[in-house]
Amino acid sequence: MTIRRPPSGLPLRVQSIGVAFTEPGGRVRDVLDVANLELAAGSQSALCGPSGSGKTTLLHVLAGIERVSRGSVRWGAVEVTGLPAVVADRWRRETVGFVFQQFHLFAGLTALQNVLLPFRFDRWKVPAEARSRACSLLDRVGVRADTDVALLSRGEVQRVAVARALVRQPSIVLADEPTASLDAHAARAVGDLLAELCDASRATLLVATHDGALAARLATIFDLVDGDVRLRGSATSRPRLVGS
Amino acid sequence: MNPFPLVVAELRRHRLGASAVVALIALAVALGVALGAQESALRRASARAADRFDLVVGAPGSPTQLVLTTVYLQPVALDLLPADVLIRLQKLPGVAAIAPVAVTDSYQGYPVVGTTAEFATDGGRIAIAAGRRFARDDEALVGSDVALAVGDHLRPSHGAPAENVLESHEHDTAFTVVGHLARTGTPWDRAIIVPLEGVWAMHGASTTATASLGPPWAADHAGPTPAIVIKPVSVAAAYALRSSLRGNGTVAVFPAEVLTQLYAVLGNVGEVIAALSLAFDLLILAAVLLVVVAVLAARRPSLGALRALGAPPAFVLATVWLQGAVLVAAGVVIGLLLGSILALGLGSVLGSRMGIAIAALPGWREFGLAAVLLVAGSLLAALPSLATLRMPVRRLLQES
Prior knowledge:
heterodimer, A: about 240 residues, alpha/beta, Rossmann fold, 10 strands, about 30% helix, disordered N terminus, B: about 400 residues, 2 domains, eleven-stranded mixed beta sheet, 11 helices, about 55% helix, about 15% strand, elongated
């Protein structure tokens, strides 16, 4: 069994999407109203904005987890927002890597088993090639493969999570506040890893973050204001983004 | 997909709680199995003990008492049948064999039973482990559980040890143990069996001493007896004898009739035990379900993360469900094993108190109950995870 090389060079395009949540009590609240956003293939961007501005929701929309009430997200020719749930799960598995603020590694599994977990979703046996890729990723992030993740520091845990996000060679990597639970030193290491590993595999990276230092090292910064996305440093409120 | 590595890791992480849940289920199952097994085993053992007592004839009185005393050697003084009944009965058509049974005396807590050597060995079906049958009226055969050896002498007391001391007295007649019977698993294993003629001689009932033991009895060397066991030549003869021996100074019962009445009571007890243990099991399942719901609520963010990483709902469902199902299955299997051991232990305690060998092993009913519990528990374990999967991934992750 071989790991499919991701078709590189596909941009992620968002067109006039709206997301509304029904709050307890029945009131409908608009969370997102993004007119236009394009992430070029292989680009690296930060998504900034205060808490509750909808950063996580936008990441979920891009990953096909959150349903939109209007508009579309396209990855090349694939309309992510139009995929049936089963297909969306498969698309996400094969195309998107995810990093969370709270890591979400599974204690009791070793670092290697955690990194290999995404292969368990659709395979009984992990292909040997995947295993060696996981080992070299762990080598790269500097964590021993056979350590129980319960024994790792927070910084190490997040580095393992980065390795897990990249093990299936995703075309898109989405990170939701990946450094918010870390000290400055560990945060810098995780930020470096994300940028370098995505660069090496030509994955498109979008990081939702409060961390100014992390945002500054990415080529593009978007601000999420009033549910819409603006390119920082641009005068226009409806930016067309060009990646690095 | 392969959720097992994750399932194993999660169970190991919560091994204390998981063990507690397994122990709880195992205990509930074990209790139900052990108690249920007793009831059916008791039924089998008591029926087996009555096997060789086809038709029991006694003086008018309680048929239940007649059976309890004759078959199970319960020491109660029965009214006596006069000697002429015995003489009359042995000549009746349809009688294949006849054996008076007199439970009148005791020795060191063992009942002393007067009967024929033929009946004591069930026509040779009960082996003699050591020694030989009695051939004289001062010889005795002892059951397997009697602590007397061949060659020992004994002097029976009249009445049972539990009776009023003033009424009991020691006889002058001494018996010599000449044989040890093999184990039968019935109350007769605790009996000291002597020739009926010896009992008569002991009580001065028979006027003439005789050299020959057993049937046929003639008027000059026969005495009264509390009970007579008849082996009929056929089933038809058995029914004919039973009706002809009712009234006119005698009662005749099939021990099975009395046992059926007792089983009717036991049957209700069995149903109550089954219903109680099922209710108990359901209670335990409800507790387990609560635990699953609580654990699941705490694990929601992780489940959300799995979905965000691309896990299909079936993977998440399998992961959560397998954890519950593994615990239920382990509990039921351990409970069955524990219950079987407990059943055997309880059976031997109960059996030795009642003088019958109870081989209490779980039967189909107990296994059926366990299977119902297994299926119900597994299905219930799936419910909370199904409910979780209906929540949007955003909300699962939010609770982090």
